[in-house]
Design goal:
The complex is a heterodimer of chains A (248) and B (192). By secondary structure, chain A is mostly helical. Chain A contains 12 helices and no strands. Chain B is mostly helical. Chain B has 10 helices and no strands. The chains are: A mainly alpha (248), B mainly alpha (192). At the A-B interface, helix 1 and helix 3 of A face helix 3, helix 4, helix 7, helix 8 and helix 10 of B.
Amino acid sequence: MKINDSIIQQYLDGDLSEDEVREFEKQIASDPELQRELEAYQKARRAVETAALKKDLDQIFDQDLSDEHTDQPVPRRYWALAASLLLLIGLGGALWWQLNTQPAKQLYSDFYRPDRGLPSLMGGEDHKLAPWEDPMVDYKRGQYNEAALGFSKALGQHPANDTVLLYLGLSEMELDRLDKGLNHLQSVKKNSGNLYQKAQWYKALLWLKKGEIEKSRKLLLEINAQDDHPYSQKAGRLLLELEHSFEE
Amino acid sequence: MELAYKKFQTDKNLYRAIQRNDRTALKHLYETHFEQVAFFVLQNNGDRDDARDVFQEGVIALWTNIRDGSYEMRPDTKLSTYLIKICKYRWYEHLKSAGYQRTTGLSEEMDQPEEKSFFAQMIHREEIEYLEGLFGRLGAQCQKILRMFYYEEKSMETIARSFSIQENSAKNQKYRCMKKLKELHQKHSQTL
């Protein structure tokens, strides 16, 4: 039996016959090179299972547990105070605008959680880094200014890289550069899968922050309609909250 | 979530559900036991993110061992007790390596030999992130195929149908995607 990649995969998948398995294990036992190949495949399989499971666990945590214990960064008191001050000064127009966006901004604070960022491979000197790896380190440390600069630079050399576009947009959101952020989030391509789904969720939040309720709602409905969308349930909850807030 | 609670009142149901990759079982673990682990971690110099990480490591370890048959149900130990124990011990191990001496609320010992060996093969945070990063380097289609085949354990026929391709084509793609993943790992470990 000539052991190649195909045979190793069949062995791991349990697709070899008993005789073939015996033959395989006999050959492998005396060939360290083949053993290394097998181990590499076992690691690859572990990577699939771990990554897939972690994705599900992160989703479960984000949907069910992360909203319960964090503090509201902007207390309702502040907005009510600002509103009454404006009333006193008599800026009717400003008051109307303030009251209209107040619940939206509150909801934004309730639902916005910064994305955790992507894990990076810890490489040696020859390891070719993806264009986003350095600024991603800044992003994960909460250094959004440095991250935005780094991602911008990477974007110059890789104008269509969806990872760079997404995280540049997210960094700009953190820095309150809403229009820039929106622009970059909107450029994330649909075929990038998970990145696009993230971009959709954060875009919806961004619209909310800007007070563009209808645009936000439209996008949230789209997200909620897809069962396998990671933010489907969150979008559903936010939609309920939006209904509730604007009924009053 | 009353339905899930009733469903998993017996360990047997929970164990079987995890083997079958039932997502509600994983949800149940989080909803029922996370806060307990979080309380312990917060009491011992940790924050909520630390608790999240440690609990995730525990669940991944438990899941892996149930799936490959190396965790067997015992009449004397509840699955949940076991899970909480390994999470607490994982945090304790982290504190020890960081130089802390005392822990509050850790009275049990990892004294059973099976527990010790289980604990020793737990995948740690750095490895989890490495594996995740590795997988993330594959294209979206590769990720989907491999996830369906190895994690969701769907048949090649089902996978082929979901992509509207022939079964042979699906097999071929899975083969190439796994080969690519293996090579990415080899390339990375060679540069270290």
